[in-house]
Design brief:
The structure holds two protein chains of two kinds. Chain A folds into two domains: 2-62 and 179-291, no CATH class; 102-173, no CATH class. Chain A contains ten helices and ten strands. Chain A has helices spanning 15-27, 37-57, 68-72, 102-115, 121-137, 146-151, 155-173, 233-237, 239-246, 272-291, and strands at 2-3, 63-66, 87-88, 185-186, 191-195, 198-202, 206-209, 219-224, 254-259, 264-269. In chain A, helix 4 crosses helix 7 (155-173). The longest helix of chain A has 21 residues, at 37-57. The two termini of chain A are 28 Å apart. In chain B, strand 5 (250-255) and strand 6 (260-265) form a beta hairpin. In chain B, helix 2 (55-71) packs parallel to helix 9 (268-287), helix 4 crosses helix 6 and helix 4 (101-119) runs parallel beside helix 7. Chain B is globular and about 50 Å long. The longest helix of chain B is centred in the middle third of the chain and has 22 residues, at 150-171. Chain B is 44% helix and 14% strand. Chain B has two domains: 37-88 and 175-287, Lambda Exonuclease, Chain A (Alpha-Beta Complex), CATH 3.90.320; 101-171, no CATH class. Chain B has helices spanning 37-42, 55-71, 85-88, 101-119, 125-135, 139-147, 150-171, 227-244, 268-287, and strands at 81-83, 181-190, 195-205, 216-220, 250-255, 260-265. Classes of the chains: A alpha/beta, B alpha/beta. Chains A and B meet through helix 1, helix 4, helix 5, helix 7 and strand 4 of A and helix 2, helix 4, helix 5, strand 2 and helix 8 of B.
Chain lengths: 293, 288
């Protein structure tokens, strides 16, 4: 594993130069060795085996979803136990909130800013909320969707969502120098991999195609994370690479976490060692959830 | 996918001339005469200080040295030692402790402030404030207000209405190009995350620094001025400096009850005082 984590003192002192630094991290050469086809098959086999073993030890019919959030929390769930629909996860019915909606609205707002459709994150967030609410009012989207929720909110409630989403959008917009990221995809689709009733979800907020020649061309992924980086952060960043590896997808060459609240970033080049660390963290997290430990 | 350059958000609004204004008491419900609060906060961009590139690193090193003195006593603590508003000015606080009318008032005024700054619009302040709290997942605060005895509830609602009207008068002209961030969370982890400094700036105005200080921070208080408020706005300035690498040029506390703002230029002395405040607060937080 090649850790190019950016210690705070290594960051350039000014915010604009930090955007340059993060852009450099997303585009600079990768030195790690690409996992081979054999590595991927071996990893998938070991993941299957470990998860099925855990299911035998702790029989449960509930489906467990492993997310980067769960991994960062070390398997700790707010109230523990089985959630709605028999799924293991945070218990109690899911309810949208301004904070819970900030990423989905913020991503759409960032796309609007980048396309020139909106002038600022504040404008963009307001416009996205308006569009989603209109769709919700017309009955479009599934029940429980963010659009349906927004449709039921009064103007002041929507303003609360705009506050959170505009902040999120600004954090992403100011993180990098967009002029140097041609072809970058804001909010690429989530990917899933499932085995033994455990679904592993990967997400990233920015996917950057890399122009590097050779087999490490691939992509770099940036994820915006709340709070500050901790001991479980690297493994959580590795989920997109792990899911791609075991599911036959394109393994990103580098994954980057960006914590705007504290101005810190962590970057990891993806190699076999890093995939092993992430896989181990997933299995350990599932074990903790199933055993309540 | 779209890949166009972000539009330049720095040029869409004229920068007002900085005219120092004394803090004066204003009649209840009416703003202070003279330059607007926003004008006083933004000042003259050409007179903003040049950023010392070594400042943020020096402040962080100073904090890390101070934290190192207690690091050995942290042992196997799972949760980090947190230094936040509670540590700097003990008192009612919506992030912990019992819910009181003061807490609800502060939370409603905070929600309404964000609404006014971002949308420039205000309906019925009490209805809007409650809807804002509900969307933030603070059903507990909504229930508390609804459960208050009639006279107490009416008094609280009256205060909220008056302060909301003042905010709508003074803050509805914030241009989106000033890149306002409302309720922006600021965090500085120290000692590998074993100690965390945490604050929320009710408003951050300005784009990232390009060599000069470019950010102004605002803390909104629904009560009367207190000595601890200056400490807290200095603390916010410290967090922003260490987080972004560039100090803000001003940090302010805004009082919608009077329409006044207490404003500090961010200087090395102010930031040094904030470091001292943090290090003084640490032992009590460690014991908590």
């Amino acid at each position: 594993m090649s850790n190019t984590g950016l210690a705070p003192t290594a960051l350039p002192p000014l915010a604009l130069r930090r955007a340059d630094a993060l852009t450099d991290v997303l585009t600079s050469p990768v030195r790690s060795v690409t996992p081979t086809g054999g590595d991927r098959r071996d990893l998938a086999r070991r993941m299957h085996s470990a998860l099925e073993g855990l299911r035998r030890e702790q029989p449960s019919r509930a489906r467990l979803t492993v997310t980067d959030y769960l991994l960062r929390a070390g398997g700790a769930m707010p109230s523990g136990g089985t959630g709605p629909s028999g799924r293991l996860g945070p218990s109690g019915p899911f309810r949208w909130s301004a904070r819970g909606a900030r990423r989905v609205v913020g991503l759409a707002a960032a796309r609007r800013c980048l396309s020139g459709a909106s002038r600022t994150p504040v404008d963009a967030a307001g416009e996205v909320i308006g569009e989603l609410a209109t769709e919700g009012e017309r009955g479009l989207g599934r029940p429980g969707s963010v659009g349906r929720w927004l449709a039921g909110l009064p103007a002041a409630g929507r303003a609360a969502v705009q506050v959170e989403a505009a902040n999120w959008c600004t954090a992403l917009s100011d993180a990098v120098d967009w002029r140097r990221l041609a072809g970058a995809e804001v909010g690429p689709p989530d990917r899933w991999w499932e085995a033994a009733g455990v679904a592993v979800r990967s997400r990233a907020d920015l996917r950057v195609p890399r122009g590097e020649p050779g087999d490490r061309a691939g992509t770099a992924l940036l994820t915006v994370v709340a709070g500050w980086p901790g001991t479980t952060s690297q493994a959580a960043l590795g989920l997109p690479a792990l899911v791609a590896a075991v599911d036959g997808g394109d393994i990103p060459a580098r994954v980057v976490g960006w914590w705007p609240e504290c101005g810190r970033a962590v970057a990891v080049d993806v190699d076999r060692g890093f995939l092993d660390v992430t896989a181990t963290a997933v299995v350990d997290t599932v074990r903790r959830v199933l055993t309540g430990g | 996918m779209p890949t166009a350059t972000l539009p330049d958000r720095r040029t869409d609004a004229p920068i007002p001339v900085d005219v120092p204004t004394p803090v004066v008491a204003s009649p209840p419900g009416r703003p202070v005469p003279g330059p607007s609060v926003i004008d006083r906060l933004r000042g003259d961009a050409s007179r903003r200080p040049v950023v010392d590139p070594g400042l943020a690193g020096g402040l962080r090193a100073w904090l890390e040295d101070g934290v190192a003195a207690i690091d050995g006593r942290l042992g196997d603590r799972v949760e980090p030692v947190v230094v936040d508003r509670r540590a700097l000015e003990p008192g009612p606080w919506s992030g912990g402790g019992p819910i009181t009318a003061t807490v609800v008032r502060g939370a409603m005024v905070g929600a309404l402030f964000g609404q006014v700054v971002l949308t420039g619009q205000l309906g019925d302040p009490v209805g809007d404030g409650l809807a804002g709290l509900d969307a933030r997942g603070r059903a507990d605060l909504v229930a508390f207000l609804r459960g208050l005895p009639g006279a107490e509830r009416r008094a609280l609602e009256q205060v909220v209405r008056r302060q909301a009207t003042m905010m709508a008068t003074q803050w509805a002209t914030v241009a989106p190009g000033w890149q306002p961030r409302v309720a922006d969370r600021l965090t500085v982890p120290l000692a590998g995350g074993r100690v965390v400094l945490r604050g929320i700036a009710d408003l951050v105005l300005g784009t990232p620094s390009d060599g000069r200080a470019s950010i102004c921070l605002v803390d909104v208080r629904s009560g009367d001025p207190q000595p601890g408020h200056r400490r807290y706005r200095g603390f916010l300035a410290l967090l922003e400096t260490v987080r972004s690498g560039a100090p803000p040029f001003r940090t302010a506390t805004y009082y919608p009850a009077s329409g006044d703002a207490q404003v500090d230029e961010v200087t090395d002395d102010l930031l040094a005082g904030a470091v001292d405040d943090v290090l003084r607060a640490l032992p009590a937080r460690e014991a908590a």
